[in-house]
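ok so I'm stuck.
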Amino acid sequence: MRRFFKLLVLCIAAGALIALITLCQAKLCFEGAESYSFFVGDTSKNCREVRADSHAALKKLTLTKVCGESAEYTEFDLESYLQSVNGEIIFVETLSDSVNYYCKADLPYSVNLYGESINLHVCVRTDGVKVGSPIIFGGY
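replied:
not stuck anymore, here's the structure
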């Protein structure tokens, strides 16, 4: 009976460890977004966008080959977010309808743009902000 109890405790501990690892993998790059998307595929050339509802972290657990994430906000404090992810703006691109910030940050995805490792792209427009890691695939 004692051996059974030890085995039961060991199985429960192993299950808890697996659940913890799974939950860590479900951590999102962006919180509190109005909408959330995942980019799934091997590279930016073959990735597809998978939209998530209010349960984006759970949706992430069901996906394989996630190569990026994006989120949309009506309001977004770029400076505060950069501080929270140890981010740094590398270059800025100003277009007629938006300003794009390409950054380095403590985020899990990255691409090489113009010789720089970029893993955060923030697109600011008058009607909202879209953020992506490593970049916003598919435009905005």
